[in-house]
Design brief:
Layout: H1 12-19, H2 25-30, E1 43-48, H3 58-71, E2 76-81, H4 85-96, H5 101-123, H6 139-146, E3 148-152, H7 174-184, E4 189-194, E5 199-200, E6 212-213, E7 215-217, H8 218-224, H9 233-239, E8 247-252, H10 258-263, E9 270-273
Parallel strand pairs: 1-2, 1-4, 2-3, 4-8, 7-9
Antiparallel strand pairs: 5-6, 8-9
Helix pairs in contact: 4-5
Length: about 280
């Protein structure tokens, strides 16, 4: 063998991977066997919307801060932040200047980081730290010691962000980054805090006839061909192949107690499932 490793030290799968091609469908299929470790099964990923919540300022943010603090004794929380309106302004200027998707991703990352730092300062007296991707190895310790952390929801792809099927807006933004954290760590739940009750047949801010959808599968949502979806469509695409996080919940953070109910596993908002 080219690796010089003795045959008897390798599992059957190990021999296949060493000797075969990682692009071979048969080889890839064999890597799906066996259980996947649940790294942080007691943690809850909570994503606070940028435009829907943080941009509203004190009247929206302070009640959520209070509710987070009230729940720290009962629930571990990995709290992600959206980017919001400031990112849209940055995107518009960058697009006008002809900048590519990867650069727009960098801009969105820094706006999301600004929001994360603001949330961190508001939670600092409760010992909740702000962490960047390089600090994620310390995440388990922070959760045990402080019960919560703040991170920016934008996935750290920066220049490596893939181009979307249409246009140049980064397809993987803060909803997606938060979701991926919940999937990789096999978190207990993925909760999106928005300013709407959940999924609707249309944007309820623009269409008063929009109907609320309390529960739906990814396939059902795709069959509806909705013009507006309450979470990034990339999240729905990722859910199809998820190993752990096959459900997400969207709640209205402007309603007091909704986060507490969602953390307790109550049926609030909209539940979207992969199956």
């Amino acid at each position: 063998m080219s690796s010089g490793m003795p045959q008897d030290l390798l599992t059957d799968l190990g021999r296949v991977l060493v000797q075969g091609s990682l692009t071979d469908p048969a080889v890839k299929a064999q890597t799906a066997t066996g259980p996947v470790v649940q790294i942080l099964p007691e943690a809850n990923v909570v994503k606070i919307g940028g435009q829907s919540m943080i941009d509203r300022g004190r009247k929206a943010v302070f009640p959520i801060i209070d509710e987070i603090v009230e729940n720290l004794a009962h629930h571990q929380m990995i709290i992600g932040t959206g980017a919001g309106t400031r990112a849209r302004h940055a995107y518009s200027v960058a697009l006008d200047l002809g900048l590519p998707t990867g650069v727009l991703s960098v801009l969105g990352t820094f706006v999301s980081m600004q929001n994360a730092r603001m949330m961190h300062f508001l939670l600092a007296k409760h010992g909740i730290p702000f962490i960047e991707p390089i600090q994620f190895p310390q995440l388990p310790l922070y959760l045990v010691e402080r019960r919560g952390v703040i991170f920016f929801g934008m996935p750290p792809y920066t220049f490596w962000q893939q181009n979307p099927a249409a246009g140049r807006i980064p397809p993987h933004r803060t909803d997606t980054g938060s979701y991926l954290v919940s999937e990789v760590f096999a978190a207990r739940s993925m909760i999106y805090i928005k300013d709407e009750d959940g999924l609707y047949t249309a944007d309820p801010k623009k269409d008063r006839h929009a109907k609320f959808i309390p529960k739906a599968t990814v396939a059902e949502i795709e069959s509806m061909d909705l013009q507006d979806v309450v979470v990034e469509r990339a999240v729905l695409d990722l859910m199809k192949n998820a190993q752990h996080r096959r459900q997400i919940r969207i709640i209205n953070g402007l309603v007091p107690g909704n986060l507490t109910r969602a953390l307790a596993g109550e049926d609030v908002g909209t539940l979207i499932s992969a199956d």
